[in-house]
Fold this sequence. Notes:
The chain is of the alpha/beta class. Helix content is 38%, strand content 23%. The protein has a seven-stranded mixed β-sheet, sandwiched between helices. Helix 5 links the parallel strand 9 and strand 10. The protein is globular, with a radius of gyration of 23 Å.
Amino acid sequence: GIGGAADTRKGTTMEYAYYCAGEWLRDGERFDVTAPATGEAVGATFRPPAAAIERAVAAAEDAFPAVRRMPGHYRAAILRVIAKMIGNGEEALADTIAREAGKPIRSARGEVARTALTFTEAAEECTRLYGEVLPLDVSPAAEGRIGLVRYVPVGPVLAITPFNFPLNLVAHKLAPAFAAGCPVILKPSSEAPLAALMLASIIDKAGLPQGMLSVLPVTGACAEELACRPEIKKVTFTGSADVGWKLKARAHNKKVTLELGGNAAVIVHDDWDDMERAVSRIALGGYVYAGQVCISVQRIYVQRNIYDRFVESFVAAVGSLKVGDPLSHETDVGPMITEGEAARVEKWVGEAVEGGARVLIGGTRDGAYYAPTVLADARGGMKVVDEEVFGPVTAVFPYDDFGEALAAVNDSRFGLQAGVYTRDMRNVMRAFDELEVGGVVIGDIPTFRVDRMPYGGVKDSGFGREGLRYAIREMCEPRLLVYTP
């Protein structure tokens, strides 16, 4: 099955080798990957030693000259093979995601399907990397000259991914890199590296040149050092803002893409005529995967004349969510990634309550499980308003004027996506013009994402864009030819 080349059994724990330039290795420090739901080991893998890291870097550098010249149709064919194999192994991949990341199995299956689509989209886009023809005769001195612009791959890429989408966010690094013609060294999340290693096993069988990929479960400090290596030409990181901006500062002379945090907001205006759907969607957006999504709904602004009705319905919807075992098909909300993270959310909510916020539902913790929580009367200065909670907590606020709501959404150091429920096209265009975010979603939650969208944020939410076509461009650089007849 999937991952068979990468694992052996040691006792009752599945042991996963790491993938270094086409070989599966089991040297270095062994560490367990534990299930957030139970605290039990679901697998084990290794921290690669320095020699393996050097080997991966050298292999990526050596592979690049040949890889960059691979024809588009060949890269596209490989990407389609990867997509098909992911689909064939959906259950094994989804089960691993549910166990190592605590993601409810229904959401885990959705992630696997999205991953297959991500590679399929990359296959389509890698043959559409169009250039330009520029007339240069803007002055007599340039008469008769033309310019040709083409996009060329930058070289070896360091990709760093988080735990919350341990397969699809990996795909959002690997698929565009392969489409562009860039080798990749991937540092997966230490909390959830197993799905990435299973994906490496698929890619290993798909026909990519040796050295095109290494998956190294190194520490964060080691990844920062890798980002400074001269052989690495591009760094793409998804994770926290604090770590991302520090990484960018250290990789100052490289191309960098940062997909960072958010505290996404949604506006519900009184002209929205399907309140039942708005409530159900916002409840989904606030609590899917226990709120551990960078575009999870965190702040909800509701026009005052419908505020009480909305809050009553919303609290009821949140109360109906089933919290439980991520392997159960009934579960809506599973555990947080660690008990420590759940304790942090508990502390933040406690601080908000001490400052005058009210808990309308939830507010309790059981180990790594934090109950879906709704707060009222929260205010700026509280972590649950100003920072990224990254947990199952939302806060509701009334507003009077639409402009007031827009200003409240913008009153944040983050700006990833925002949702707006309104039927008034004047409000739609005003929101599109004034909201300081990377994406405005009308009639739905900011948690909505289709993987071909230009996805990314402003302010502390990021730098650059993902989404297949846009990510491929981020992994290339324009090269100009000036032709004089």
